Amino acid sequence: MKGIILAGGSGTRLYPLTIAVSKQILPIYDKPMIYYPLSVLMLTGIRDILIISTPRDLPCFQALLGDGSDFGLNVSYAKQPHPNGLAEAFIIGRQFIGRDNVAMILGDNIFFGHGLPDICRQAAGRNSGASVFAYHVDDPERYGVVSFDKATGRAIAIEEKPAVPKSNWAVTGLYFYDNDVVDIARSVEPSSRGELEITTVNNIYLARGDLNVCMLGRGYAWLDTGTYDSLQDASSFVRTVERRQGVQIACPEEIALDNGWLGPEEVRQRAGLLGKTAYANYLLRLVEERVG
């Protein structure tokens, strides 16, 4: 399975912070924002990852992530000159995807939960159809909202930013698709907003009976970092967990070490490049704990 991180857009809701830099480069406590969606794909077991961003911002991501070898990955890059909708990622990434299935995650979404790797690997393990994740929110009108049949509990519809939501379950920015998504995305017509809506793609799978909706209940956190307050909330959340438990959230080097994609010496060398920082010290501690 291939992975895509969609990290485009102009981030106007965060001006002046994002006038000169991509939103997904901004810090969430002690790491760049893009580390968090990158880590979700890595926890899923995905090593081939495409970063899609604007022509202005791609050099920043390339400077930060390089070819991915520091994390045991193969990272490539593609341009999205204009924010034409999430579904455009599968058109831009068509050659990258090839004949594989694909997962896409939005670059400003943060997921956390003990069982997250398991449910992501289950979704990635489905050979056909699509899988999305729903999360209970207080402001569903801001999202794609999934409604369910009361008798069976099965998803029956997804509406994009409805004025009168039929439920409080929002579709998060993490999606798993079979290879059909490449052709489905090409068939999608622009919405009234002029965008290729991911909700349209999901509804096509739903109409085919091929959409699996996993509800993220208690024990999971989903944070959308598109406003000043949500940026602060996300940083506070990460800081609290890390300081309380003494572990890192979304540490790509640690995931790569656990997955066997990097060896202890490679992680030690990576720590050496990061200077006398708490993050570097954490990597060194990981190596000492594993190899002594």
Features:
single chain; 292 residues; alpha/beta; globular
Task: Characterise this structure.
It contains eleven helices and 13 strands. A hairpin with a 2-residue loop joins β2 and β3. It has helices at 35-44, 58-65, 88-92, 94-97, 116-124, 181-187, 198-207, 228-245, 252-259, 264-273, 278-291, and strands spanning 2-6, 27-28, 31-32, 48-53, 74-79, 102-106, 109-112, 130-136, 144-148, 155-160, 169-177, 211-216, 221-224. The strands form four sheets. The protein has a seven-stranded mixed sheet. It is of the alpha/beta class and 292 residues long.
List the helices and strands and how they pair.
Blueprint: E1 2-6, E2 27-28, E3 31-32, H1 35-44, E4 48-53, H2 58-65, E5 74-79, H3 88-92, H4 94-97, E6 102-106, E7 109-112, H5 116-124, E8 130-136, E9 144-148, E10 155-160, E11 169-177, H6 181-187, H7 198-207, E12 211-216, E13 221-224, H8 228-245, H9 252-259, H10 264-273, H11 278-291
Parallel strand pairs: 1-4, 1-6, 4-5, 8-12
Antiparallel strand pairs: 2-3, 6-11, 7-13, 8-11, 9-10
Strand order of the largest sheet: 5-4-1-6-11-8-12
Sketch the major β-sheet: 7 strands, mixed
Mean pLDDT: 94
Q: What amount of the residues lies in strands?
A: 15-25%
Shape: globular
Q: Tell me the total number of β-strands.
A: 13
**Class from helix and strand fractions:** alpha/beta
The first-to-last residue Cα distance is 34 Å
Order of helices and strands: EEEHEHEHHEEHEEEEHHEEHHHH
Share in helix: 25-40%
Q: What's the alpha carbon Rg, rounded to whole Å? A: 19 Å
The DSSP helix count reads 11
Low-pLDDT residue intervals, each spanning 5 or more residues: none
